Amino acid sequence: MQKINRGSRFNKSVRVGVLLCLLCTVIVAGGCGSGESNVASGNREGILYWGNGAEPQELDPHIVTGVPEHYILIALLEGLVQKDAATLQPQPAVAERWRLSADGRVYTFTIRASARWSNGDRLTAHDFVWSWMRALTPKLGNAYAYMFNPIVNAQAYATGELTDFSAVGVKALDDLTLQVTLDNPTPYFLQLLDHYSMFPVHRATIEKFGSIGEAGTVWTRAGNYVGNGPFALRQWDLNKKVIVEKNLLYWDAENVRLSGIHYFPTENLTTEERMFRAGQLHRTSEVPVGKLDFYREQQPDSLRIAPYLGTYFYRFNTRLPHLADVRVRKALAMTVDREAIVEHVLRGGQQPAYSITPPDTLGYTASSDLRYDVLAARELLAAAGYPDGAGFPPVDILYNTFEQHRKIAVAIQQMWKQALNIDVTIRNQDWKVYLDTQANGNFQIARAAWIGDYVDPNSFLDMWIADGGNNRTGWSDPDYERLVSDEAPSAGSVEQRYAILGEAESILLDAMPIIPIYHYVSIHLVHPSVKGLPGNLLNNPNFKHIYLQAEPAAP
Amino acid sequence: MRFIASRLLQAIPVLLVVITATFFLVRAAPGGPFSADRAVSPQVIKALNERYQLDQSVWQQYAAYMTDLARGDFGPSYKYPGRSVNEMIFGGLPATAELGLYALLVAVGIGLCAGLLAGLRPNTGQDYVPMTIAMLGICMPAFLLGPLLVLVFGMRLEWLPISGWGDLPGDKVLPSLTLGAAYAAYIARLSRAGLLEVMSQDYIRTARAKGLAEWRIVSRHALRGALMPVIAFLGPAFAGLLAGSFVVETIFQIPGLGRFYVQAAFNRDYTMIMGTTIFFSVAIVLFNLLSDILATWLNPRLRLALRKGSGT
């Protein structure tokens, strides 16, 4: 009796329990009819939802060093000139025009009279002088101070050798005229003006919250920030999003078509891709490799791939005896099957690299003898004293922990084993440890990459001078340094300059302290409603010209 | 009261050891906060080291840090120069705490139901089904379960938002479920075991002999005993939910504390590593204490022992 009784009572309480559980779930999930997507509402209201890759370190253009910060700063601030998003040619921005002296050393910029700060203050040439003085103040610790190096005495001021800023080649001739004097004619100087380290900052705001050499004050917070760009900072929620809205006081406000941008710190690529699929983002910062084929087949309109001014390469530590021999370095470089790596590992349309400077960098293409040639490589290795790899010390490839780097290292490991019969180990380290190891020269071969700061071969070639800090291979060559540091800057014409730089790059490739592997591409998912966002070598958008058009292009 | 005070006093040396060990360990790790791929000039490094007093000896740095800490100041973040560590921790805490709380509710709600269901009818279908699911829940890591839930409820069925926190209605459901699942499974096992043990006790037999209804036996007599292990587990569980939210926060784009905790280590953001470590240590100590107090209060035997102890 008891048992039967227990059963029936009990089933009741069980049922109640289960019901309660379900109820909980329903309540929590309550009211969750997925509403309108960000993309749909954004297209209507002119708001761009931008996957920005990471939380910005800061919004101070003289402090930050990263790409996510760049995308926000170009909305909030504007330099003297900007680049056309399609051609990358310099265009007037804060400066409405400029004049270059006959010797190519003195630029005179005319600031437009309508230029304003977002608080209504006039923007003058004095703002630039003060801002650049701040950017070069040693105490501020601006990692990008070297961008000013072409300017007379800028480097001396940044290192503290010179304490009188009036000796630096930046003068405000009057409120609207800025004169900049360079050491040498610098064909890429106008491009630098578009880099955030050269953006103006609002003096009164910065001095309200701290001194000129003080970093990390609250002037960059929403509510305090005063900028001069097409957008103004509205909201900065830590790790959640940054919101900018159209700046009505911007000199060209009538041509700004977006009413705002929301930047998301999308650190996780797969989450970002899902957000894009769910219509929460107009644009992603990257695309997971595994998703490339899916988008190629299903949504080719959304997949945007464009050449990107960067090269992935391996550094040799030429201080080591077996890698000091150029024949060994060449043999290793010649047995990397770049086509296979690009096609099977990367799969994103990257270009195999046979030079450090990407081809057609503003009309410059290096001539390179480097090719995939196993037989010639074996001969070179034999000539170096290691016939069929015999007696060759074990080689070690260092890379920072990242799946794609590992795949490439494994592929190269196999290629060298097959082609040259040498044993290769691969070793990964956490990013900061890897940097330390490389800086200390405690490696044999290390994975590396370089992204150009500006579109000019110099951005890829001046790093290989002996005390460049970015060299790290232990290789140097006096002829190379003469060509890059002395002859190229004083060249008479573009053709002559490219010829000199080409000669320098030939010296570099002939010594092969590096193995160029591939040239980068930028890969993003972009919703088809986003217009005015052409891909370019610097992956540099111009938010001013972006607009959103909701109706699908397909009939 | 004396019990609580003594437990708190015991926690101080533990925290001091944690702080000191972390302080020296992070500085011993290779790679500094300002090392970068793109060479930074010596002047810049010098300026940064001076700003953060990294040019002084480690002992001077330690003394300075402890002095600031005594005033409740965790110092500035190295990676985010415009932010103090205090600001970042207390900025991220609400989201992480809320997520932890919901996850705990999920864990307790689902875990208890499943565990009690199973424990009441051991070795039947009513036991096997929830317990198999619980085993799966324990085994399945959040980085797998999260995307899976997103795929089903977010992408296929489109019932729930796939990311965000407090932006869209219902966007807190999937992260809470994901984070709570493993703990729900654990609680299910604990409560099942607890119930089984209690149900075999003499006083339950007495109750049965008196002819009490089964649900009354369970709710009045068995439940309290069965819940003891669960309650002892809640404190560490909540601390674990706070500190372990990194994966879920990353998957769902939640502006919480967990992301800083892990990122700070990669960035060698010394002050941020210290700040988050200290914060989580304190949280773990506190929640352990809290669940001990709760367990004592619920267990008459322990209560009595304590009273006797303080009486002598």
Report on this model:
- The complex is a heterodimer of chains A (555) and B (312).
- Chain A is an alpha+beta fold and 555 residues long.
- Chain A has two domains: 12-279 and 527-545, D-Maltodextrin-Binding Protein, domain 2 (3-Layer(aba) Sandwich), CATH 3.40.190.10; 310-521, Dipeptide-binding Protein, Domain 3 (Dipeptide-binding Protein, domain 3, Roll).
- Chain A is 33% helix and 18% strand.
- Chain A has 18 helices and 18 strands.
- Chain A has helices spanning 2-29, 38-45, 67-76, 125-136, 154-159, 189-192, 203-209, 269-277, 292-298, 321-324, 326-334, 338-346, 374-383, 403-420, 431-439, 458-461, 478-487, 494-511, and strands at residues 47-51, 81-83, 90-92, 95-100, 106-111, 170-174, 177-181, 231-237, 241-246, 260-264, 303-316, 351-352, 395-400, 424-429, 445-451, 514-525, 530-531, 547-548.
- In chain A, the strands form five sheets. A six-stranded mixed beta sheet of chain A has the order 12-16-11-15-13-14. In chain A, strands 1-10-9-8 form a four-stranded mixed beta sheet.
- The longest helix of chain A is centred in the first third of the chain and has 28 residues, at 2-29.
- The radius of gyration of chain A is 28 Å and the shape is globular.
- Chain A starts with a helix and ends in a 7-residue tail after the last strand.
- Chain B has a domain at 96-286: MetI-like fold (Orthogonal Bundle).
- Helices cover 77% and strands 0% of the residues of chain B.
- The model of chain B has no long low-confidence stretch (mean pLDDT 86).
- Chains A and B meet through helix 1, helix 8 and helix 15 of A and helix 2, helix 4, helix 6, helix 9 and helix 11 of B.
